[in-house]
Amino acid sequence: MSQNSENSQPSEALENLLHENRKFPPSAEFAAQALAQPTIYAEAAADREAFWARQSRELLSWSKEFEQTLDWSNPPFARWFVGGEINAAYNALDRHVEAGNGDRVAIYWEGEPGDTRQYTYAQLTEEVKKAANAFEALGVHKGDRVAIYLPMVPEAVISMLACARIGAIHSVVFGGFSAEALRNRIDDAEAKLVITADGTFRRGAPSSLKPAVDTALQAPGHTVKHVIVVKRNGEPVEWVEGRDLWWADTVEVASAEHTPVPHDAEHPLYILYTSGTTGKPKGILHTTGGYLTQTAFTHKYVFDLHPETDVYWCAADIGWVTGHSYIAYAPLVNGASMVMYEGTPDTPHQGRWWEIIEKYKVTILYAAPTAIRTFMKWGRDIPAKFDLSSLKVLGSVGEPINPEAWIWYRDVIGGGKTPIVDTWWQTETGAMMISPLPGVTATKPGSAQIALPGIEADVVDDLGHPVADGQGGYLVIRSPWPSMLRGIWGDPERYKDTYWSRFENMYFAGDGAKKDEDGDIWLLGRVDDVMNVSGHRLSTTEIESALVSHDAVAEAAVVGAADETTGQSVVAFVILRGSALVDGVADPQIEQILRNHVGREIGPIAKPKRVLVVPELPKTRSGKIMRRLLKDIAEGREAGDATTLADAGIMQVISESLKKTP
Ligand code: PRX
Question: Could you write out the three-class secondary structure of 459-517?
Answer without folding.
Answer: EECCCCCECCCCCEEEEEECCCCCCCCCEECCCHHHHHHHHHCCCCCCEEEEEEEEECC
